[in-house]
Amino acid sequence: MSCFGYCNDCGEIHELPSALAIPHCHDLMAQLSAHKRIDFDVPLALADPRLSTHILYSNMRGRMFGILVCEDVSGNEVILRAFSSRHNGVWNVKGWVPPLVDEHAFVAEVERGNLDIHPLTDLIATLPKESKEWYSKLAERRLVSHGILAKLNALYTFHNFKEESRSLEEAFQLKKGIPVGTGDCCAPKLLNYAAKNHLKPLSIAEFFWGKETASGHRTEGSFYASCEEKCQPILGFMLCGVNKLLHS
Ligand SMILES: [Zn+2]
Ligand SMILES: [Zn+2]
Question: Is residue 31 within 8 Å of 25, Cβ to Cβ?
Answer without folding.
Answer: no
